[in-house]
Every structure is written in structure tokens, then in C-alpha cells.
Specification:
The protein has 7 helices and 11 strands. It is an alpha/beta fold. α4 links the parallel β2 and β3. α3 packs parallel to α4. The longest helix has 16 residues.
Length: 276
């Protein structure tokens, strides 16, 4: 399978750099006629149609980029873990923000037995068309959904890609999403870049983190980007900031929420799924 992706990537590059009028692909092309659309919305509807048990259980991963073979292995492992409700792929689906990369990753993650939901990463913005591609394939960069009385507030925190313009992350939007809402017992934030990273806007860090940790019933803030597992409470209190390894690191985080209480464990690829 890895050979397939290498050959496909080579063929793609040949088409890109030796194109003629009959060639469909371009590094600046946003999509083709077969590109799936609004996958997050569709997968959220699938998720919300499921009957939840006592435990909300989901997988946190990120930075799949060009790790096609490792992504396939991860899908096979997750499909053998009991009780998983969905997978949160927290940014950097692609490496260069090209639509073909995102399509290949969707081909892999669509083999999950459960829905997968994505967040926009900085690498997904690398091409001039990356954001438009993401918006068409997956949906808005800032969105939220409720499942089992928990509201997941997913947002763009890739400040550097906007030249630290003071608008990313969109704090007014976040503040509105974190307002008390009927039927919601807890809130979880999800963004690619953690707020203490150099790629996050330093001028927004204090306001952003204060908003999160001081919002009633806020449970945790989920991230990726730094390519290592890291769980800490850097802004005081008991609110954990949970960072997952990249897919290449052959590990993801399995998160359980019971009665508004969160627990988590790192799952290496060589573990026995039956143990979880």
C-alpha cells in the first residue's frame, strides 16, 4: 500500500509539473468533480444519529500529513477498540494543503467504523488554495457540535499563517460558543496549535486561555502540532491542555468522558486493542 501512494504521488507530481491542456490536476486547483464535500457536517450527523452509552469515548489524533501507511494502521487499530464514538483528527490532514492529499486521507479515514471529524491545521493552509479546499471538503474552519450533552468547539488557531493579525483565533466567536446552552453539560475546545506554542499569537494567548479556563463547565482543550504527547495544566486550575502525537509517532490519545469528568490514555500502535 505504501508503494501505491508513492507511485500515485509521483504520478501526481508529473501531472502537476508537466501539465498540458488535457491534464486536470494543478497545485492550485481547489477540487475536481469527484471531491467529497462538507464531510464534517455529514460525519457529525452520522455521530448524532448514534445511540450513546454511559461513556463518551473518542480518539484524539492529528498531523496525518503524508503518513498514509501509518494512518491505515491507526484506522485498523481504532476499529478494534471497543466503544469508540468518533475520531477527532486535529489538524494537518495534509502536508502541503493540496486537495489530492486530503482526498487520499479521506479514502483512508472513511474506512473507520465510526465518524471522523477534522480541524484545520497550519499545513492545510500551505498552498494558496488550502483553506478553500478544506472549506469545500470539510466545512468551515470554526464550527461546533453537541454530542451526548458535550459541546465540542473546534476552531482555527493557526495564527502564524495569518501573520499574527490579531484575529486568529477568533475570540469573539469562541466567547459566543462557550455561552451556557440548554442541554449542554460540558465544553471541550479543539484547535491544532496549542496556545503556548510559538505559532500561536502571543498577543491573544492570555485572553484566549482566560476565556477557556474560566468558562463554566469547560472540560479540556485539545491540540496537536508539536508532534509529541503532552498533558498539562499550564494556565492554572484543573483544566488539562491535551496534545497528541503526530500519526508518524504511532500513538494516539483515547479519551473518555463520564458525567462531565475526563480521563485519557495514550495508545501506542503496538498495543493490544483488546486492552482498551
Amino acid at each position: 500500500m505504501k508503494t501505491f501512494y508513492i507511485l500515485s504521488a509521483l504520478a501526481f507530481c508529473i501531472l502537476v509539473f508537466h501539465s498540458c491542456g488535457k491534464v486536470e490536476y494543478s497545485p492550485h486547483q481547489k477540487f475536481d468533480s469527484n471531491t467529497p464535500q462538507q464531510l464534517n457536517e455529514k460525519n457529525i450527523k452520522w455521530l448524532q444519529s448514534k445511540v450513546n452509552n454511559d461513556t463518551l469515548r473518542f480518539v484524539l489524533s492529528g498531523d496525518s500529513q503524508r503518513e498514509y501507511e501509518d494512518s491505515e494502521e491507526m484506522v485498523n487499530i481504532i476499529n478494534r477498540i471497543r466503544g469508540v464514538d468518533f475520531v477527532l483528527l486535529n489538524g494537518d490532514i495534509s502536508d502541503f494543503g493540496l486537495y489530492q492529499e486530503m482526498e487520499w486521507m479521506n479514502d483512508i479515514f472513511s474506512k473507520l467504523n465510526v465518524p471522523y471529524i477534522t480541524v484545520l491545521g497550519n499545513h492545510d493552509l500551505y498552498s494558496g488554495s488550502g483553506k478553500a479546499i478544506y472549506n469545500r471538503m470539510y466545512g468551515p474552519e470554526n464550527f461546533s457540535f453537541v454530542y451526548d450533552s458535550i459541546k465540542f468547539v473546534c476552531h482555527d488557531a493557526n495564527s502564524r499563517e495569518y501573520n499574527f493579525n490579531g484575529k486568529v483565533p477568533d475570540i469573539p466567536w469562541l466567547a459566543n460558543e462557550l455561552q451556557p446552552q440548554e442541554g449542554v453539560k460540558g465544553y471541550i475546545g479543539a484547535s491544532h496549535v496549542p496556545p503556548y506554542d510559538v505559532d500561536f499569537d502571543r498577543n491573544l494567548e492570555q485572553e484566549y486561555t482566560s476565556l477557556l479556563v474560566n468558562s463554566p463547565n469547560f472540560i479540556a482543550s485539545l491540540h496537536a502540532h508539536i508532534n509529541k504527547t503532552q498533558i498539562s495544566t499550564p494556565y492554572g486550575g484543573n483544566i488539562p491542555f491535551i496534545v497528541t502525537k503526530n500519526v508518524k509517532g504511532e500513538e494516539f490519545i483515547l479519551i473518555d468522558i463520564i458525567d462531565g469528568k475526563i480521563s485519557f490514555q495514550a495508545v501506542p500502535f503496538d498495543a493490544d486493542p483488546a486492552d482498551y
